[in-house]
Amino acid sequence: MAKLADAITVSIGGEAIELRPSLRFAIRIERRPGSFAGLLREIMDGSLTATCEIIRDHADIPMLETRILDNGLDALREPLVRYVLALTGMDEPEAANDNGSKAKGKSQPFSEYLSGLYKIGTGWLGWTPQDTLNATPAEIMLAHDGRMSMLKAIFGGTDDKTDKPQSDISLDEKFRGVFGGFGTKIVQRRA
Q: Where are the domains of the chain?
């Protein structure tokens, strides 16, 4: 199950800035060259340009580059990575395949996944386009789950999850897609 995104706050020159991982920004990041994986790579490499690109979406700060350099890029790396991962709508790792089995589902480009979330928000949930674009991917998925539960309570239905019009991409496949360019691999913890 998706979890609502925690508030992601960064401090630039003593000013706290909340980075809200809304669908609007997820669509914009997906369309940029390199998409999510490219942006993550730039953040990990300490790119001032990538850092400014994210923060400018959320605050208008004069002389942003200078203030970030005064603050230090390393302090911003962890919250920016969490922000980009929240934009993808990824669940927490412990929720993925507890039984160790490989998830069933087909691969889907992030552009289709994000447009599917938009369709859920404006179609299934009846939200305005503005409300849908301002919601986080996790909020859209949880609201959809709530709507489906309500409809099942009213009209009856099965408890299987086969009727969900959400992404068929497993969490492992999402991580592989995002982190594939880094050459990383998933390591399971030993109990």
A: 8-93, 96-170
**H helical segments located in 100-164:** 110-119, 129-134, 137-155
Predicted confidence at residue 182, as pLDDT, reads: 58
Q: pTM of the prediction? A: 0.72
* pLDDT at residue number 95: 39
Q: CA-CA distance, 49 to 47, in Å (whole number)?
A: 5
What's the Cα-to-Cα distance from 28 to each of 32, 58, 105, 132, rounded to whole Å?
A: 7, 13, 26, 14
- Which residues does the chain have with pLDDT short of 50? 1, 92-101
Q: How is 73-118 classified by DSSP, letter by letter?
A: SHHHHHHHHHHHHHHHTPPPGGGS-TT-PPPP-----HHHHHHHHH
142-154 per-residue burial string, b: 16 or more CB within 10 A, e: under 16? bbbeeebeeeeee
